[in-house]
């Protein structure tokens, strides 16, 4: 057996074995040491035999408990190594002998531990009680360290009512905990509204009296944001497909002439997002903006640059020397908003305005830093850069790994559907098994054949459906009204506003009634951050009614077939239909 506290490799060391073999037999009195009572005489008559350590240890334990001062004095004056020998740096004191074990046996140390505990109790009890000046930093009941998206348990358990509005004007009051994030609340509303959860729903902070609004980040706490809002402000629940679109297509959001890199020799679009997310790099957005002067109605066109430390304007042309830069606003204690009606409310020179609003401002407009870009791409670039410089890698974590949903309802789950264009491939099912068409020319030919198949299929469906009590022509004119992408009788301006609110991404679309032709419809589509309109006209062929947007070359029996076709084939459109604008009633 091995000594307690000694590894096996130590016991088999050659030096240790030699010491054990050369050690002379010791008497029990030698093992006990000075100050300890001698054991019974039955052990003294067998000095040449093996020592009965079990009985010896029992007697030693009794002696230790009765002679505690002597033991403590010896432990302080005779330093020993792990193997029981004296340290070589200092000789053993006079009156003591080297403690060596004749044979490897277990050592009972419970009594020593008990004495150490009693010694500690005696030492602490003799000192006066000193109160802990920082009780919150220790102990099992100490609160956890605050992190982003978390609150102390006492505050997180508190409930609060929040009123949420939808795009159609309906509202719903929801009771939420204080630590609920915007993403958690969106998931709860999606579940109660029976919508498809594709991580594009968002909560909008809307200030009608200021003409401002912004989308909350997924990690922001709803209760904390509401505490900074005025009574006239409210939350809106809507789609925003452009929330993380800049991670997928960064070159569409950051024009090359607007991006520079400080203290770097090179930096292309491949490293664009890495430089924004890396806190050690110094990306910079630069260009001309219309800036509204504080406390005045006038606007000035200035050269502006955005850095990690804030937004600066140059007082001398396009100079970026430190002496010519003036701070317009910081990003730490502020948020970036879009201007809803900048021309009407603030006399903005363009329709592409945005604002840096301090979090402490509720109703006053004097401290708002209002700016205007020349086009939508410029405004999107400035606002996206502000988000990246303020939140950094946290945005990327929200994009790649959405925050886990709260256990608000018992094991609820929402359907998740991917509408990614990359998940759609051309297939050939002419043989016994299907195959993926990798040749682009062959895929284009298959798309044309699919268009002809759609026309034949629609004609056959109309012939078979003519026996129905509801005439097929009547059914084809009303069936589309049940779809989310159809928005009825809305104006062109309203359709453009909906497209802008739900994100200017490629493939975002909606259908509406035409204002100029009562029998026609209009497809409103976004491509390269520009909104285009395509008229869908009815046409008649062999007594059957069809719909077409390419002058009758491709005909469809109803609008549902038309939308399904252009989701798979670009046709005459600049891009495929990818996302549809939706309004949900709460």
UniProtKB/TrEMBL annotation:
CDD domains: PH_APBB1IP, RA_GRB10, SH2_Grb10. Belongs to the GRB7/10/14 family. PANTHER family: GROWTH FACTOR RECEPTOR-BOUND PROTEIN, GROWTH FACTOR RECEPTOR-BOUND PROTEIN 10. It is found in: Cytoplasm. This is Growth factor receptor-bound protein 10. SUPFAM superfamilies: PH domain-like, SH2 domain, Ubiquitin-like. It comes from Ursus maritimus (Polar bear). Residues 22-44, 83-103 are annotated as: Disordered. GO terms for cellular component: cytoplasm; protein-containing complex. Residues 158-242 form the Ras-associating domain. The gene is GRB10. GO terms for molecular function: insulin receptor binding; signaling receptor complex adaptor activity.
């Amino acid at each position: 057996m091995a000594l307690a506290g000694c590894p096996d490799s130590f016991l088999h060391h050659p030096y240790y074995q030699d010491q054990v073999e050369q050690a002379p037999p010791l008497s029990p009195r030698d093992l006990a040491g000075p100050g300890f009572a001698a054991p019974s005489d039955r052990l003294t008559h067998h000095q040449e035999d093996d020592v009965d350590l079990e009985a010896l240890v029992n007697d030693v334990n009794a002696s230790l408990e009765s002679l505690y001062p002597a033991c403590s004095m010896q432990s302080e004056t005779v330093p020993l190594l792990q193997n029981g020998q004296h340290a070589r740096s200092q000789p053993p004191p006079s009156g003591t002998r080297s403690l060596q074990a004749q044979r490897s046996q277990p050592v009972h140390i419970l009594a020593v531990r008990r004495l150490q505990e009693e010694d500690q109790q005696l030492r602490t009890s003799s000192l006066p009680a000193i109160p802990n000046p920082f009780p919150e930093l220790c102990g099992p009941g100490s609160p956890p360290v605050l992190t982003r998206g978390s609150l102390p348990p006492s505050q997180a358990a508190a409930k609060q009512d929040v009123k949420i509005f939808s795009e159609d004007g309906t509202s719903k009051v929801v009771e939420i905990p204080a630590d609920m994030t915007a993403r958690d609340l969106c998931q709860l509303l999606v579940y109660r509204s029976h919508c498809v959860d594709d991580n594009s729903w968002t909560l909008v902070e809307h200030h009608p009296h200021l003409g401002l609004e912004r989308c909350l980040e997924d990690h922001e706490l709803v209760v904390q944001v509401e505490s900074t809002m005025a009574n006239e402000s409210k939350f809106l629940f809507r789609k925003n497909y452009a929330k993380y679109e800049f991670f997928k297509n960064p070159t569409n959001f950051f024009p090359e002439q607007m991006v520079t890199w400080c203290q770097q020799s090179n930096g292309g679009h491949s490293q664009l997002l890495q430089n924004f997310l890396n806190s050690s790099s110094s990306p910079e957005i630069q260009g001309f903006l219309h800036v509204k002067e504080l406390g005045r109605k006038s606007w000035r066109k200035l050269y502006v640059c955005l850095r990690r430390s804030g937004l600066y304007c140059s007082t001398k042309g396009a100079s970026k020397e430190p002496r010519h830069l003036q701070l317009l606003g910081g990003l730490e204690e502020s948020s970036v908003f879009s201007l809803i009606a900048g021309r009407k409310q603030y006399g903005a020179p363009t329709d592409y305005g945005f604002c840096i609003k301090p979090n402490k401002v509720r109703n006053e407009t004097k401290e708002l830093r209002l700016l205007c870009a020349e086009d939508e791409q410029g405004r999107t670039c400035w606002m996206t850069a502000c988000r990246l410089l303020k939140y950094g890698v946290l945005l990327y974590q929200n994009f790649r790994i959405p925050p886990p949903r709260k256990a608000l309802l018992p094991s609820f789950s929402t359907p998740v559907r991917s509408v990614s264009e990359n998940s759609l491939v051309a297939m050939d099912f002419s043989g016994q098994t299907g195959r993926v068409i990798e040749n682009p020319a062959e895929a284009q030919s298959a798309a044309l054949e699919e268009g002809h198949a759609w026309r034949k299929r629609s004609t056959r469906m109309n012939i078979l459906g003519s026996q129905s009590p509801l005439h097929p022509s009547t059914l084809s004119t009303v069936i589309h009204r049940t779809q989310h992408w159809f928005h009825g009788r809305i104006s062109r301006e309203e359709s453009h506003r909906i497209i802008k609110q739900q994100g200017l991404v490629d493939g975002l679309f909606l259908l509406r009634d035409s204002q100029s032709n009562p029998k026609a419809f209009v497809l409103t589509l976004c491509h390269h951050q520009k909104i285009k309109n395509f008229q869908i006209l009815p046409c008649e062929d062999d007594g059957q009614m069809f719909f077409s947007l390419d002058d009758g070359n491709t005909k469809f029996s109803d609008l549902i077939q038309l939308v399904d076709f252009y989701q798979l084939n670009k046709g005459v459109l600049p891009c495929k239909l990818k996302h549809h604008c939706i309004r949900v009633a709460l």
